[in-house]
């Protein structure tokens, strides 16, 4: 099973990029160190509950968005397509993410 710290880190990075925040800007909003934000995003550190809450507030998202659809079962998690897509998108710029999102919407409309 993929390390939950890596999943949460990818989600933090994705939301941060979506909000067009640098690691430094997010760290300032959360009263955390930018290096710590980077370590969390790379899955190198396990965040505390307090840190996760501060980051969610800094990102302006409900805390549950950072944990949604994380499975405790290795088989389910490995095949959960939204997480696989999220992983692929996490390193893209927000405008590139938007293009992929628009393509997905177009594909959904074409399916009938």
From TrEMBL:
InterPro entries: Cro/C1-type_HTH, Lambda_DNA-bd_dom_sf, TransReg_Diox_bact_type. Pfam families: HTH_3 (PF01381). One of its GO terms (molecular function) is DNA-binding transcription factor activity. GO terms for cellular component: cytosol. Residues 12-66 form the HTH cro/C1-type domain. Keywords: DNA-binding, Transcription, Transcription regulation. It comes from the Bacteria. PANTHER family: HTH-TYPE TRANSCRIPTIONAL REGULATOR, HTH-TYPE TRANSCRIPTIONAL REGULATOR SUTR. This is Helix-turn-helix domain-containing protein.
């Amino acid at each position: 099973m993929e390390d939950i710290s890596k999943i949460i880190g990818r989600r933090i990075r994705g939301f941060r990029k979506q909000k067009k925040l640098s690691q430094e800007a997010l760290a300032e909003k959360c009263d955390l160190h930018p290096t710590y934000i980077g370590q969390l995003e790379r899955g190198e550190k396990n965040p505390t509950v307090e840190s996760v809450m501060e980051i969610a507030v800094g990102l302006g998202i409900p805390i549950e968005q950072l944990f949604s659809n994380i499975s405790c079962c290795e088989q389910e998690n490995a095949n959960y397509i939204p997480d696989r897509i999220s992983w692929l998108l996490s390193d893209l710029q927000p405008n590139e993410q938007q293009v992929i999102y628009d393509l997905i919407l177009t594909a959904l409309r074409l399916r009938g």
